[in-house]
């Protein structure tokens, strides 16, 4: 079988609700189990997904005795949904499992990873403004929690955690690149919002304190550190991380936060 022909506008999205548009038509099924099956095939585009992996995802540790027969029925219905004209070659049987013949580049997560890598390389090279643009473009691919319209079993649930960790890393690196590019004042509102939503994220708090210090707001930076230190000690029984303690020492000595 040849990989399905990808036309301009054909897209597959997992960074938000799952969507699949082929030839201008929305091919994502509405039936929960078919959508879950499609997600399992879509996160490994062009690769065979073992029957056992699909059964485990769809029924976890309690599959019915008829699981394989039921899975075969699901595949039949999904194949007809994806290829109503019966041309073949979209969803193929590939022992010991099934394969979705779609190019990985069509899936938004592939572009996200490409931009994430590009941003890291640009940051390493010191091209901070370009790095910030790459990370921002990567983050703009997200429209919500990954696979938001799917009841995820164990495999897809783990995959969403993996994606969210990469999104968090891209966000942190985007902020870092913006600060290095001299946009610390512009990032203060973003950082205030993010630290309010996630009050124990020490990376975000360190970036906020740095941005405040670089903006000439030393007293606000010290107040932010003290607020976080109190919350961490009172609610978690821990002290701020080494990076935050170093920033605090520099602020007390009227130095500037690490750039």
TrEMBL record:
PROSITE patterns: OMPR_PHOB. Belongs to the AfsR/DnrI/RedD regulatory family. Residues 3-102 bind DNA. Keywords: DNA-binding, Transcription, Transcription regulation. This is OmpR/PhoB-type domain-containing protein. Pfam families: BTAD, Trans_reg_C. One of its GO terms (biological process) is phosphorelay signal transduction system. InterPro entries: AfsR-DnrI-RedD_regulator, BTAD, OmpR/PhoB-type_DNA-bd, Sig_transdc_resp-reg_C-effctor, TPR-like_helical_dom_sf, WH-like_DNA-bd_sf. It comes from the Bacteria. The keyword Transport does not apply. SMART domains: BTAD, Trans_reg_C. GO terms for molecular function: DNA binding. Residues 3-102 form the OmpR/PhoB-type domain.
